[in-house]
Amino acid sequence: MKKRILWIGLMILGAVAVAFIVNLALVIRIPNTQMQVTMTEKFNFPSNQWVFSPPSSAASKKVIRPSADLLYSILCYDVSQHPLRVTAMLSEYSSISGFSMNTDNFFVIDDNQAKSNPIEVVLISKGMTYQDTTGKAYVITAPSPQGILMIGAVVTSQADLPNLAQIQKQATAELVR
Q1: Mean pLDDT across the chain, nearest whole number?
Q2: Domain positions in the chain
Q3: Interatomic CA distance for residues 30 and 37, integer angstroms
Q4: In this model, does residue 148 exceed pLDDT 90?
Q5: Topology annotation, domain 51-175
Q6: Which of 143, 144, 164, 145 is nearest to 155 (CA)?
Q7: Sign of CA dihedral 22, 27, 30, 32
Q8: Residue 173 CB contacts under 8 Å (≥ 6 apart), including other chains
Q9: 95 φ/ψ angles, rounded to the nearest 5 degrees
Q10: Is 19 left (phi over 0), alpha (psi -120 to 50) or beta?
């Protein structure tokens, strides 16, 4: 009887251990897989180039759960070989954000926090060094070599759209070699 209870206890313990390991593996893997699918299949944008989305609507598919009052600029970054310098004008009520491959938002700078306009961000990979000689750039270490940068600008009225679209298209990105 004691052997049977011990055997059942070990079976339950083994099942719990397997369930824990499988759960942990899924929790780690699913965000990375989802981001990879988003970048390669959903967006399929060239690396390190801004893509300027038109105003969001119910039919918008590029941005996941888009906000109808935001104008988006999206960049799939790859800093595996070189730092990436991005420059962008931030209009009132706008921000630039970075998302790593596990979908974590690793930085946000809004128009009130920016130390200059246009804002300059130099994105580097872990282990890289970069010295900003201008003193104006935010040097940010990306937690993953690939990911997504996004600028969201609030559209306060439809009359603002032409001006916001012009500001949006001033964003640049260049690898620093």
Answers
A1: 88
A2: 1-44, 51-175
A3: 10
A4: yes
A5: Immunoglobulin-like (2.60.40)
A6: 164
A7: negative
A8: 48, 49, 50, 75, 77, 84, 85, 86, 87
A9: -155, 160
A10: alpha
